[in-house]
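Budget justification note: compute hours in this period were largely spent on complex prediction jobs such as the one shown. Inputs:
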Amino acid sequence: MSSVNYGSKRIVTGAGYGFRDWLAQRVTATLMALFTVILLAQVIFTSGPMEYEAWAGIFASQWMKVLTFSVILSLLYHVWVGMRDIWMDYVKPLAVRLVLHVFTLVWLTGCAGWSIQALWRL
Amino acid sequence: MLTSVCCVAIESNGLLFKLQPSYLTESANMTELAKKRPEFRNINALTDLPSYRLPAAGIVSILHRISGFLMFLLMPFIIWMFDNSITSEISFAKLSAAFNIGIGFIPGWFIKLVALALIWAYLHHFIAGLRHLYMDVCHAVTKEFGKSSAIVTLVLSIGLTAVLGAKMFGLY
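Corresponding output:
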């Protein structure tokens, strides 16, 4: 066995490469799907027209805030894995790919910050 | 177990057909063919892709990717809607007006159209995602199930988008 085991000399044994992202993609997706069902149920079972009071009331309770918060973080990670896949598949020049990765991270963390701020102001 | 994990992981990367063996496109006599080893080239998005007849599962797969990318790009618009809808009664009214009358130089119908695109993207991504999860959990990786579930995904996502779009534009 070679003494150098990194970079192009790295010996890939085939166990667990990308498995964590693959699993995270599915776990976060399940959480977001459950959130969708829970939110939809609350909208459907609201009596009367959907005005501001009823809509904002859904997000006002503490448990819904905590759930929405974890969904925002799940979304952040889910989209990061997905966008990274897209850039890795279609963008070959390393410099451009790096710039796009950095842009994605800034875009996503910024969006997460904004939505959490909007949520907790309520 | 391991096999099914591999299959799904490959499909979740989107486009399945990245390489095309050149012996499919070249006409050579048998002796020449026997000598020649298959040569793999990258496909060209403009000259090769339109001639590929993508199966239903392939269409669902690439649309899964496109819908995800669309939601990524429009994320600030989604959060802007969420922010305005829950912040105050005034911002809620502002958001309603943006949909009905328009906001600034952007007409209301355009806002509705973008929202409809997001509705489609969410529905498609959601249903195609459930299909993935079902396949992972139940090891449902037969060719037949891949095709039938892909058609169900397309019909449901487009159908529901049409129903919600008609509602949003006040057709019923």
